[in-house]
Write a structure and sequence with these properties.
Number of helices of chain A: 15
Number of strands of chain A: 17
Strand content of chain B: 15-25%
Structural class of chain A: alpha/beta
Largest sheet of chain A: 7 strands, mixed
Strand order of the largest sheet of chain B: 3-2-1-4
Largest interface: A-B, 21 and 21 residues
Number of helices of chain B: 4
CATH class of chain B: Alpha Beta
CATH class of the largest domain in chain A: Alpha Beta
Oligomer: heterodimer
Number of strands of chain B: 4
Mean pLDDT of chain B: 92
CATH superfamily of the largest domain in chain A: Type I PLP-dependent aspartate aminotransferase-like (Major domain)
Helix content of chain B: 25-40%
Distance between the termini of chain B: 32 Å
Strand order of the largest sheet of chain A: 4-10-9-8-7-5-6
Number of domains of chain B: 1
Strand content of chain A: 15-25%
Number of domains of chain A: 2
Low-confidence stretches of chain A: none
Shape of chain B: globular
Mean pLDDT of chain A: 94
Helix content of chain A: 25-40%
Radius of gyration of chain A: 22 Å
Order of helices and strands of chain B: HEEEHHHE
Radius of gyration of chain B: 14 Å
CATH architecture of chain B: Alpha-Beta Complex
CATH topology of chain B: Sufe protein. Chain: A
C-alpha cells in the first residue's frame, strides 16, 4: 500500500503537543481518539483563555459600569467579530450566540417558523439529518400547521438533487434546513446549488454547519446562506456556546424567542420593546467564559488555516477508506464523492456496540449506535454503525491502529 | 489481544447472542411490551403467555441490538418460566444487582444460568444492554406497553 501524501505544511506532532489530553493513557495504551465528530478535544490556547478569564478578567457583561465588566464585555464581544470573520459574515450583528447548533435551529424554527412562516407552507430537510434538524421542524409542523418534506438521498449517501428540486414545484416551500456535512456518512451537501434552487423558488435556507465548519472554510456570503449554525465544542472550543448566523434583514424581521434581561430596550408592565439584533435573541446572562474560549478556538483554527486542515483530513479520510475497505467483512457506509473526515462502517460478525467495547479495550474511542440520526439508519436499512471521525490531531498511524485492531476484533468474534 | 474480554464475551454469551433459543414472537400471548434504549438504538419486544394461575407459561422476544442484549434476553426467558409477576420482579432486582456489581448473594437457582453476564458490571456503558429485556418484561407484566432503560 502506498503511503498517503500528508500535507507537509502541518506539523502534526507540534499540533498534538498542544492538546494535553492526548497524553492520557487508556488502560495503559495510548489514547486513539476517533470521536471528534461527537466533540473535539481542546488545545492549550482554549484552556488557557478560559482559565485566564476566570483568574484575571471576569464579571457579568453588557451592564456593569466598572472596569472588570467593561473588559469582560470586550473579550466576549470580540468573539462575535471572530465568528463573523470565520463565516465571512458582512456584519457582526448577524452573529447570534446560542448554546449549540441545536439551540440555533430551535431559535429559527420558533422565531422564523412561527413568526414569519405561514401555516400551509413547507419546510424541506434531507434524509441525512441529525435529530436536532428534524425534531424542531416536527414541533413547528404540529404547533403551526407547516408541512415537513424530506429530500431523499441516493445509495452513496448524496442528496438526490432532482428529487430535491421537485419538492419546490407547488410553490409551498418557505424554508430549507439541511446539513452542510453528514455526521454519519461524512457527505458534504452541495450547499451552493441547494441555496440557488431554494432562492429561485422564494425559499430561505438554513445550513447546519456543525460538522462542516470544522473541516472546511465556510463563506456565508459566497454561499448566500440565510441562516448558518455551528457549535463551539466540535471546533476545538468549549461546550455551551454556539453560533447562529442570520442575514440581518431576516433577524430584524423575526420576533424574539426567549424573553428576559439583555434582550429588551425598555420594560414596563404594559409592554416591552426589544433590543436590536443580535441582542434581541440573547436573553439572560450568556456563557461568558465559554464565549471567550470560543474566540481562542476560532483564532487557533485560523492560525492553522483551512487549506492545511482540509488537506490533512482529506488525506486521512483517503487512507482510512483504503485501509478499512480492505478488511474482510467490513462495509463502509456512505460513498459520497465529496466527503469529510467521518467514516461509518459495519462488520459482518459483530454489532457496533460490541465493536466499540473491544476497540475501547485497545484505547481506541469510536462512536457506535444510530448517531442521533435514526431516520437515516432506517433509510440505510441499518440498526447502528460504528463511526470513526477525525480531527486536526489525528494521525495516519492512528488509522492504522484502528484498522489493525478491527482485523483482530473480527477474529475475536469468529 | 482481547483475551481479557473473554470474561464478558464468554462462550455462553457468544452462543446465546448468536443463536438465541427463544427469539420468536408468541402468536398466542396475554401481554407484550417494547423496550428502547434511546441513547444507542437498542430495541426489544417481549411477549408473555400466562398459565391459569397467573404465572409465566411462555415468553418470547425480538431484539435488535448487541450480543449482550440478545444473550441477556434469551437467558431471561428461561429464568422467569413459572414465576409470578411478584417473584419475577424479585429476580429482576437480583439480576440488576448482578449486572451492576457482579455479585449474586444467596443466588437463586434460576439466576445461576445468568452468571455468565456478571462481567458486564466492569463495562458501565453496557449494563443497560443486559437490563433492557428485563425492563421490557416488567413493563409487559404491568401492562405498560413500552419502557426504556434510561
Amino acid at each position: 500500500m502506498n503511503a498517503p501524501s500528508f500535507d507537509a505544511r502541518l506539523d502534526i506532532a507540534a499540533i498534538r503537543a498542544q492538546f494535553p489530553i492526548l497524553e492520557q493513557k487508556i488502560r495503559g495504551k495510548d489514547l486513539v481518539f476517533l470521536d471528534s465528530a461527537a466533540s473535539a478535544q481542546k488545545p492549550r490556547a482554549v484552556i488557557d483563555a478560559m482559565v485566564g478569564a476566570m483568574e484575571t478578567q471576569y464579571a457579568n457583561i453588557h451592564r456593569g459600569l466598572h472596569w472588570m465588566s467593561e473588559r469582560t464585555t470586550e473579550a466576549y464581544e470580540a468573539t462575535r467579530d471572530a465568528a463573523a470573520r470565520l463565516l465571512n459574515a458582512g456584519d457582526r450583528h448577524e452573529i447570534v450566540f446560542v448554546r449549540n447548533s441545536t439551540e440555533g435551529i430551535n431559535l429559527v424554527a420558533h422565531s422564523y417558523g412561527r413568526g414569519i412562516m405561514k401555516p400551509g407552507q413547507a419546510v424541506v430537510i434531507s434524509a441525512m439529518e441529525h435529530h436536532s434538524n428534524i425534531v424542531p421542524w416536527q414541533m413547528l409542523r404540529d404547533a403551526h400547521g407547516t408541512e415537513l418534506r424530506v429530500a431523499p438521498i441516493n445509495d452513496a449517501g448524496e442528496l438526490d438533487m432532482a428529487a430535491y428540486e421537485a419538492l419546490f414545484a407547488d410553490g409551498k416551500v418557505g424554508l430549507v434546513a439541511i446539513t452542510h456535512m453528514s455526521n454519519v456518512l461524512g457527505s458534504y451537501t452541495p450547499a451552493e446549488r441547494i441555496i440557488q434552487i431554494a432562492h429561485a423558488h422564494g425559499a430561505k435556507v438554513l445550513l447546519d454547519g456543525s460538522q462542516a465548519v470544522v473541516h472546511r472554510r465556510v463563506d456565508v456570503r459566497a454561499l448566500d446562506a440565510d441562516f448558518y449554525v455551528f457549535t463551539g465544542h466540535k471546533l476545538y472550543g468549549p461546550t455551551g456556546i454556539g453560533v447562529l448566523y442570520g442575514k440581518r434583514e431576516l433577524l430584524e424581521a423575526m420576533p424574539p424567542w426567549m424573553g428576559g434581561g439583555d434582550m429588551i430596550s425598555s420594560v414596563t408592565y404594559e409592554r416591552s420593546t426589544w433590543a436590536r439584533v443580535p441582542h434581541k435573541f440573547e436573553a439572560g446572562t450568556p456563557a461568558i467564559i465559554e464565549g471567550i474560549g470560543l474566540n481562542a478556538a476560532i483564532e487557533w483554527v485560523e492560525g492553522i488555516g483551512y487549506p492545511a486542515i482540509a488537506a490533512h483530513e482529506a488525506a486521512l479520510t483517503d487512507h482510512a477508506l483504503s485501509r478499512l475497505s480492505a478488511i474482510e467483512g467490513l462495509t463502509v457506509i456512505g460513498r459520497a464523492q465529496d466527503r469529510g473526515g467521518v467514516v461509518s462502517f459495519t462488520l459482518d460478525r459483530a454489532h457496533a456496540h460490541d465493536i466499540a467495547t473491544l476497540l475501547d479495550r485497545a484505547g481506541i474511542a469510536v462512536r457506535a449506535g444510530h448517531h442521533c440520526a435514526e431516520p437515516l439508519m432506517h433509510r440505510l436499512g441499518l440498526e447502528s454503525t460504528a463511526r470513526a471521525s477525525f480531527g486536526i490531531y489525528t494521525t495516519p498511524g492512528e488509522i492504522d491502529v484502528l484498522a489493525d485492531t478491527l482485523i483482530k476484533v473480527r477474529e475475536f468474534f469468529q | 489481544m482481547f483475551e481479557d474480554l473473554r470474561d464478558l464475551y464468554n462462550a455462553t454469551i457468544i452462543e446465546r447472542g448468536r443463536r438465541p433459543r427463544h427469539m420468536r414472537r408468541l402468536e398466542d400471548f396475554d401481554a407484550t411490551a417494547k423496550g428502547d434504549n434511546p441513547m444507542c438504538g437498542d430495541r426489544v419486544q417481549v411477549w408473555v403467555k400466562y398459565a391459569g394461575d397467573g404465572t409465566i407459561a411462555a415468553t418470547g422476544f425480538d431484539a435488535r441490538g448487541c450480543e449482550i442484549s440478545k444473550a441477556a434476553a434469551d437467558l431471561m426467558v428461561e429464568a422467569v418460566a413459572g414465576h409470578s409477576a411478584t417473584s419475577t420482579r424479585r429476580l429482576f432486582a437480583a439480576f440488576r444487582t448482578l449486572a451492576q456489581t457482579g455479585e449474586c448473594a444467596e443466588c437463586a437457582e434460576e439466576l445461576k444460568p445468568m452468571l455468565p453476564l456478571a462481567a458486564v458490571h466492569e463495562y458501565p456503558s453496557r449494563v443497560k444492554c443486559a437490563t433492557l429485556p428485563w425492563h421490557a418484561l416488567i413493563a409487559a407484566l404491568e401492562g405498560e406497553g413500552a419502557t426504556t432503560s434510561e
